[in-house]
Amino acid sequence: MVLFRSVSLLTKLRSSAVQQSNLGNSVRWFQNKLRYTSYFHSERCNLRCQYCMPAEGVELTPSARVLSQDEIVRLANLFVSSGVDKIRLTGGEPTIRKDIEELCQRLSNLEGLKTLAMTTNGITLSKKLPKLKEYGLNLVNISLDTLIPAKFEFMTRRRGHDRVIESINTAVDLGYNPVKVNCVVMRGFNEDEICDFVKLTRDKPINIRFIEFMPFDGNVWNVKKLVPYSEMLDRVGKQFKIERIQDHHTETAKNFRIDGHQGTVSFITSMTEHFCAGCNRLRLLADGNFKVCLFGPSEVSLRDPLRSGVDDDKLREIIGAAVKRKKASHAGMFDLAKTPNRPMIHIGG
């Protein structure tokens, strides 16, 4: 999947609308001048994380219905030419794409794009990262939910903990700053490791991002597994001297400095303190469906009109109409748990 971020998407979409089709009314939600407007997503993965997919796995989209590299680049160029300045590749696992290096090179060469990011499980990243950096990948998020190999194997249903650690160290050695590490915190599994994760930031430019456990189809979400932001912050505050960082109004994380540490700590509080008012994320899924909210079931196909031969102005109109339907905030966590949505592997993190 791809996530886009845009400096002036509202302005440019409105300008196009005035000339073309009253699209300005359709993109009124973009009043914060989006910077981060889309994820390009790949469904395939080499792990089977319990919070991402059910134990029996998921049915993958047939290859004929998946966006081609050329289609991804065309849609990315459409967003970037409209003001997007950040794109994120996610999954599934983007590094197992055979064309990932070429895709990064083509995307990073889009005029106006400032940041090409990737969220990865780190299993195969270490060997590929030097070339990916050469081809324009300038920000990485690496997922790691435990520092204990046996627990890693239990959670992911696969081995490879050592390779994830190697990828984090490789990213640091290559000069990525910060190296973001995503950690989904679940009661009874890894809440006792929170402060151990914080210690990773002492001597390295690592940003640990603690994420509240979120409900998706097939991940057997239960509020009893949720460790709320307030509890995580309290654990960290009792052991470390922390200072809140002034966040940008579109920031999805609550960010903190740790006294004496080179790195930082962040909290993604989707369940207990949502950040919908400032959220500027949109998602393009592997099958070309477009989502304006991670938790919303509503999707609109960009693949079908793209393959039917519509021009970029019509695609902008479709995007604008979808954005117009974006709600001011997602439902509460108990309602989300009952709302049909795709498994996380189909949506992208």
From TrEMBL:
Pathway: Cofactor biosynthesis; molybdopterin biosynthesis. It holds the Pfam family Radical_SAM. GO terms for molecular function: 4 iron, 4 sulfur cluster binding; cyclic pyranopterin monophosphate synthase activity; GTP 3',8'-cyclase activity; GTP binding; metal ion binding. GO terms for biological process: Mo-molybdopterin cofactor biosynthetic process. SMART domains: Elp3. The keyword Iron-sulfur applies. It comes from the Eukaryota. Keywords: 4Fe-4S, GTP-binding, Iron, Iron-sulfur, Lyase, Metal-binding, Molybdenum cofactor biosynthesis, Nucleotide-binding, S-adenosyl-L-methionine. InterPro entries: Aldolase_TIM, Elp3/MiaA/NifB-like_rSAM, MoaA, MoaA-like, MoaA_twitch, MoCo_biosynth_MoaA/MoaC, rSAM, rSAM_sf. Residues 30-259 form the Radical SAM core domain. This is GTP 3',8-cyclase. It comes from Heracleum sosnowskyi.
